[in-house]
Every structure is written in structure tokens, then in C-alpha cells.
Amino acid sequence: MRDKQRAMVALATGLMMSGTAAFAQNGNLTLLHDALHLTSAQEPVWKTYVAQTAKGDLAGSRRQAVSRLLPTLPSTRRLALIRAELEEEVADLKDMQRVLDTLYAALSPTQQRVFDAKTLPPSGSQQ
Fold first, then answer.
1. Which of 34, 49, 76, 123 is in Cβ range 3.0-4.6 Å of 103 for a Cys bridge?
2. 118 closest CA partner among 45, 24, 11, 38
3. How many CB atoms lie within 10 A of CB 52?
């Protein structure tokens, strides 16, 4: 049972770290910004996107805390904690989707292609 619980948390973590979140965590936002050649009108939406990606650090800390706590809990509490963590992951994903949709809509088709190419998960990734 413990392996299944860990797999669930790992899956949620993998989903959060795919694509743009992994790109942001690797410190490549400046490179992405430069590659996009954003206009001054696009900058506010970009700043919102950057702020949202920064929340990934908090989510990562939360996941680490959950992982440390799981072995200390009885089965029913572990499952409840995993469920709560997954619900938080879904909420985080929804927030990222909303912000990303807004940014993407503000980009030109050429910028969208650059964004798509630059934010692919690393090759060989299992996300």
C-alpha cells in the first residue's frame, strides 16, 4: 500500500513539474523571456506567469513535507493526506492553466511556437 501511495504522490509531482514548471524551476525564465521578444503590452501578463511559476517552489516544499510525514501516519490518515495533497495539486494545476491560457492568448503565433518549443519537458522525461 505504501508503494501505491508514493506512486500517487510521485504522479502528482510529475504532472506539476512537466513543461513550464520544470522550465521555471531550472531557472530558464529569463532565457524564455528573451526568446519570446515580448512587447511592453505583454509584460504584465508575463509577470503574472512568472509569479505563478514561483508558487511551484512552495508546492515542492509542501510535497516534501507530505513525503516525510507519510511514514509516520496510520493507513487511514496517510490516505487522507495523499488525497488532500492531490487536491492541492489539482488546484495548483488549475491556477497554472488559467495563467498560462492568459499568457498564451497574449502571444503571437510565432511567440506561441517559441514558447511551445522552449517549454517541452526534457527528452526522456516520464512526465
1. 49
2. 24
3. 21
Q: What does the block give as the cell for 81?
A: 493526506
Contact 84, 65 (CB under 8 A): no
CB-based burial label for 73 (10 Å; 0-12, 13-18, 19+): middle
| Spans of all domains in the chain | 2-118
Q: Would you give the distance in Å from CA 117 to the centre of its chain?
A: 17
**What is the spatial distance between Cα 127 and Cα 16, in angstroms, rounded to a whole number?**
9
Q: Provide the residue count of the chain.
A: 127
User: What would the grid cell of residue 17 be?
Assistant: 513539474
Cell numbers 492531490 label which residue?
Answer: 86
In which band, very low, low, confident or very high, does the pLDDT at 127 lie, cut at 50, 70 and 90? Answer: very low
What is the model's pLDDT at position 24?
59
The answer to whether 32 and 89 are in contact (CB under 8 A) is no
Answer whether residue 47 shows pLDDT above 90. Answer: yes
User: Is 104 within 8 Å of 52 (Cβ atoms)?
Assistant: no
